[in-house]
Amino acid sequence: MLSIMNQRSSDKPERPDGNAEDVLDSSSADATGGERGPWVPLVLMPLLMVMAFVLVIVLFGWLGVAGDDPGELVARLQRADRTGFRDAVTLVQMLREPAGEHLRRDERLARELARLLQDELAAGRMDDDRIQLRSFLCRALGEFERDEVLSPLLAAAETERDVREIDVRRSALEAIAQFVAGRPPVSATVDDRLRQSLLAASHRSASDEATEAARDALRATAAFALGVLDHPEAHDRLVVLLDDLSVDVRYNAAAGLARWGRAEAAPVLLEMLDGQDASRRDVRATARQRQWRRQIVTRSALRSVELLWAAEASLDWDPLRAAVERLTRDPDDLNIRHQARRTMQALEAAVPAGYDD
Question: Hey, is 343 helix, strand or coil?
Fold first, then answer.
């Protein structure tokens, strides 16, 4: 479905905690679109945000997904129970489970959660618990295969009365991308609002030092979501974002364009394959965290190269081939070497238009 989808379990990058498990797992989805997987990850998210979300899932998800009843969870949420945040996390887990397919198609459950999100948005409470609840309601709604969820998600993506709602907006954008990817086109009216909402979120807005990182993360998420849309206006915006100051915005824009076979992605893909992005030099990150990020960035770039090749993009392939070939001998990371070798095999399987060996 997206550029880091379709990774086999044996190829997952090592997590920062040392476990050989890809926390952005999406092994059941197809990299080029089609089958819906239980998780559609961002191509890139700021590392600390990824880790915070994973930590929440790890801490709360084990508390009883198998034994919880979705109807009771929703009832507690409707009563504004103090366990609401945990209940929303549990619902996300249940919906993402392979056994949750019937839940993802449940009209009543989708409508009840959509109404809950609408009520939470209307109430506008800004305490941390309610912000987190709205964020996880968005994530839950993004798992559904019901059209009823899109309108409240768009409302959440467009609502910012306080900087604390940036996190809710970002969760809504992720959920929208999850919902749209691999689905039939929505109605023209909804599609126009959806596209305009994503375009607006991708633009830089006024921020101070305290909110700059959060707003860059929001725009990176918008770039990811735009990459899911098959529309020239979305693709034109992604071309502009290739020159953005934020590395995550650039990288998501490149991966989105590669998904549609756009050759403009190639220079930024080379930057991703180089492995020297500024975020890896973040002194606040541990060596293992930087390694984890490099794995995510590099895998995204390698899958994007494969998608460009499969689309027979007309460009000078020599620099990309050379960059991939170098990674097959990467001295630091066995996982990257294996992925690069598979990409080289894909590049040798056929010759796209515009490439002269």
Answer: helix
Which residue is listed with tokens 């990176």? 220
Task: Record the tokens describing residue 278, joined without a space.
Answer: 């500024």
pLDDT of residue 60: 44
The whole-number pLDDT of residue 30 equals: 36
Identity of the residue numbered 61 = G
With beta carbons less than 8 A apart as the criterion, state whether 311 and 261 touch: yes
Rounded CA separation 192/2 (Å): 22
Q: Are 272 and 297 in contact (CB under 8 A)?
A: yes
Closest CA to 270 of 317, 234, 226: 317
- The closest of 61, 63, 60, 90 to 74, measured between CA atoms, is 90
In sequence order, which residues have a C-beta less than 8 Å from that of residue 196 and are 6 or more positions away? none
63-69 long-range CB contacts below 8 Å, 24 or more apart?
63/90, 64/90, 65/90, 65/93, 65/94, 65/97, 68/94
Rounded Cα distance, 31 and 15, in Å: 22
Residue 98 DSSP one-character state: G
The confidence band for 69, taking pLDDT boundaries of 50, 70 and 90, is confident
Nearest to 177 by CA among 164, 200, 194: 194
Determine the Cα–Cα distance for residues 175 and 221; give it in Å rounded to an integer.
Answer: 10
Question: From CA 63, how far away is CA 279, in angstroms rounded?
Answer: 34
Q: Which residues contact 116 (CB under 8 A, 6 or more apart)?
A: 74, 77, 78, 137
Nearest to 153 by CA among 185, 193, 188: 193
Which domains does the chain carry?
Answer: 9-349 (1.25.10.10)
- 239-271 residue pLDDT tens: 999 999 999 999 999 999 999 999 999 999 999
**Predicted structure pTM score:** 0.81
CA distance 176 to 130: 20
Annotate 153-190 with b (16+ C-beta within 10 A) or e (fewer).
bbbbbebeeeeebbbbbbbbbbbbbbbbbbeeeeeeee
Q: How confident is the model at residue 319 (pLDDT cuts 50, 70, 90)?
A: very high
86 touches 63 (CB < 8 A): yes
Rounded to the nearest angstrom, the gap between the alpha carbon of residue 216 and the centroid of all alpha carbons in its chain is 14
